[in-house]
Structure formats: C-alpha cells, structure tokens
Amino acid sequence: MPLYLSRFSYTPETWARLIGNPEDRAKAAQSYIESVGGKLHGFWYAFGARDGYNLWEAPDNVSMASVALAISGGGALSSFETTVLLSVDETMDALRKAGEVRYRKPGA
C-alpha cells in the first residue's frame, strides 16, 4: 500500500481546547485511517513551521484523500498537507520511464 506523509497545524482554538482537556489525537488519527482500510505508522508533534506530522498507509490515493478531506473539513486545523511517498524501487521505475518521455523545452 502507498505511504503518505501529512504535515498539520492546529488553530489557536484547538490548542486552547487541548490545553483545557489534553487528548491523545494519535488515537483519533488511527481510527480515521483504519476506517478506509489503512494504517497509521506514526504521529509526531514538532517545533517549527508545522505542529505535527503523520505517516500513513492507505489502499490508494482516493482513500487517503477522503481522510484528508474529512480532517481538513473538521475545522480544528489551520493547515493540512499530504505528500505521496515513493519507495526507492518506485523511484527507480520512474527514472527508467522518464528516459522514454520525449520532453521538449518551452519555445524549442
């Protein structure tokens, strides 16, 4: 199954709710991805540009997109970005196929 890396930030209101009532949000994230047949591989909070990161596995892009849309639409986050991760083997396949693409520079 494909892997996905998500980066998220909470709204100030969400942080205030979590301060008032601490909650392990990894359990919620796990239930979301499992509802589409996937698996949560990790959930981390961080200093920096984003408040946290998730590593997910999902059956396909549509399944992951459904989770991302549900989370984004929930209103607790100020940002949520998901990146599809490629294995080294997938990247090697893409490199081989790229050699077959007849790319033309703009204006050439």
Automatic annotation (TrEMBL):
InterPro entries: GYD/TTHA1554 (IPR014845). It comes from the Bacteria. It holds the Pfam family GYD. This is GYD domain-containing protein. It comes from Streptomyces cavernicola.
